[in-house]
Structures are given as C-alpha cells and as structure tokens.
Amino acid sequence: MTVRIGILGCGRIGRMHAELLSQRVPGAELAGVYDVIPAAARAVAEQFGVAATASVDELITADGIDAVAICTSTESHVDMIVAAAGAGLGVFCEKPIALDLKLVDDALAEVERTGVGLHVGFNRRFDPAHRAVHDAVAGGKIGELHLLRITSRDPAPPPLGYIATSGGLFLDMTIHDFDMARFVTGSEVVEVSAAGAARIDPAIAEAGDIDTAAITLSHADGCLTVIDNSRRAVYGYDQRLEAFGSEGLMASENAPAHGAVRHDAAGTHVPPIANFFLDRYTASFVLQWEAFVGCVAERRPPPVTGSDGRATLVIGLAAKRSFAEHRSVAVSEIDP
Ligand SMILES: NC(=O)c1ccc[n+]([C@@H]2O[C@H](COP(=O)([O-])OP(=O)(O)OC[C@H]3O[C@@H](n4cnc5c(N)ncnc54)[C@H](O)[C@@H]3O)[C@@H](O)[C@H]2O)c1
Questions:
Q1: What's the 39 CA to ligand 1 centre distance in angstroms?
Q2: Cα–ligand 1 centroid distance for 263 (angstroms)
Q3: Less Cβ around it within 10 Å: N or C end of the chain?
Q4: Which CATH class is domain 125-281+312-334?
Q5: Cα(224) to centroid of ligand 1, in Å?
Q6: Residue 6 pairs with which residues in a beta bridge?
Q7: Structural contact between residues 85 and 114, judged by C-beta atoms closer than 8 angstroms
Q8: Where along the chain do the CATH 3.40.50.720 domains lie?
Q9: What is the average pLDDT across 78-88?
Q10: H or E element at residue 134
Q11: Pocket test for ligand 1, best of 94, 103, 237 (most atoms within 8 A of CB)
C-alpha cells in the first residue's frame, strides 16, 4: 500500500518533510500541500509536482489521502489535529502539540473519540546513535542507570519572530530533551529544577526568553537527568547523550562532516560537526517517517503517542515554573 500524506505548513520543517516524503521514504507519497501563505505552498507544490490547496479542508478531504503532517506554527497544531482526526486521517504532528495543557487535552480527546493514530514528531528517538544508547540502557548493558546527561546546543538562535511565538526555550527547544530523558531512562519525570540566562543576544531577553539553560530532572525510579542547552554553539550543532550506570557508560557523540584528519605542528585537526538540524538529523527524520508510514499502512498505533507529547509539555511547564520561581517543581504541581 502507498500511504498518501498531505503537508500543512510549508516553512522550514514542512519543506524538509515534503522533500523526504517525495524522495526518501519507501511506501509514502506526497499528496498535496497547504500554507496560509499561498506563495509558500505554491513553491513547495511546484518543486515536488503536487497540488497546493486553497484551504485545510480541501487538503484533508482530497481523494485518496491517508494522513497529514502538521508542520505549521505551534499555535495552530490543535485546530489541525481536530480537523484531521474528524476526517479520519492518520496524524503526524510536529512538536510540541501545543503550549497549553488544556488545549492538548482537547486535541487528545478528539483523537481518542475518532480512533485515529496521532504521532508526535520527536525525531531524535530515531537517531541511530541516540537509539543505540537507549537500547543499551534498556538491555541492561550499563547496569543500573544512575545519570543521563544531555547536551543540546543549537549553532545559532532562530529568528526573533520565531522566538516570540515559540513558547520559549523550555517548550520549544528543551522539549526534545525532555522527550529523550523519558525515552532513554524509561522512567517518568517527577521533579524539575531549571536555571536559565540570556547570554547571547539581549534581544532574546527583550523578547522575554532565555538562550542558555541547565536543568535537572528527577525520575520516578530514582535516576537523574542533567540537560544543558544553548541557542548558540560556535562550533556547530552539538547533540550528545551520555548514560552512566553501575556497569559503565555509553555515549552518542557528534560525528565530524567527514573522516579526513590533518596533523601538524599545532595539533590534530578534524572536520567540523554538522551546523544545521536538518543535516545532523536527516537519518532520524527518514526513519521516523518509515515508522509512521508502516503504522498507517498496517493500522497500528504510531511510535510516539499523544500522551508522550503531553508528558513533555507537563515537564516543560514545570521547568518554566521552576525557572520563574527559583525552586524545584514537582510534576504533580502542574498535572495533579
Ligand atoms: N522536529 C524538529 O526538530 C523541529 C524543527 C523545527 C521546527 N519544528 C516544529 O515545526 C513547527 C514549524 O516550525 P518551522 O521552523 O517550520 O516554522 P516556520 O515559521 O518556518 O514555518 C511555519 C509555516 O506554517 C505556516 N502557517 C502558520 N500558521 C498556519 C495556519 N494556521 N495554516 C496554514 N499554515 C500556517 C506559516 O505560513 C509558515 O510557512 C513548529 O511547531 C516547530 O516547533 C520541529
């Protein structure tokens, strides 16, 4: 079966998903695209030879469509989930589902009522190196897990316009790390302690956000996760995990752009690491699509569920409160 998927939102990530679905994902076909900015939709439609529709409804009711990928700005995700679920389509929604827990619950209630599958786009779970760390922990290879360390630093901040609507660093950026913490440890987060600062650009602080953060998570099984974030690492897109346990350690490192190494009197020089999330995580995005497409074709539940998306939002809201009130916050304070 070919799974036909329409894309809602033709910005940075929507364009990438359009390209992957058109060219890289066996069993998938791009069914059409929509964006509130018609020129954005037209550009992607022309590039990949599909129709740009004039509305969300026109796309989700198109002949033969099986699923949609919601790649619009975060504040529109819930309306799109409700519309797509009402049409009986499989739903792939970029992270985060929403910035407000009540809205997420409304969306999940509609997903439950209609029985459609909802996948939330936490692509890092599908990164081969991070997944190997997950598998080693799950398989007991490092013994009892004591500490997970996550370093997640962007090469450069996004445009200020994006920051203003993103929900802030914890809900926009760290939310990936909250998901990795739950995924790799296999244990729910019970308490959050977050510190943050604006060290890169005063305009980020003026927009009400931070660009640097250190967060500690306590898990139900007693292990700890430590996350550090920056919106600007001058050496590239720095994405590393380290799981430390009673029998040893396993880490996923940054891969250099290629394998050539130069040695001279000043030292040993290796190529830089990837400088963009699309380059670093291409494999994860493709593997994520393969998993989603298989689930739609075989009518199985998708790999990263609405309740995974909800759990990360709860942790993010706890982090925001912890930062604002300079204290540790129990997850149960946010979600009794
Ligand atoms: N998984 C990841 O690593 C990852 C990376 C980047 C972005 N994202 C998520 O993807 C989403 C989009 O991010 P982006 O970087 O592509 O943003 P973007 O601003 O580049 O693109 C968003 C697009 O959505 C369109 N849009 C906004 N509201 C709309 C509506 N109501 N109807 C139709 N179109 C609408 C805009 O016109 C724009 O073209 C965000 O939720 C973001 O958090 C995820």
A1: 15
A2: 43
A3: C
A4: alpha beta
A5: 32
A6: 32, 68
A7: yes
A8: 3-120
A9: 98
A10: helix 128-138
A11: 94
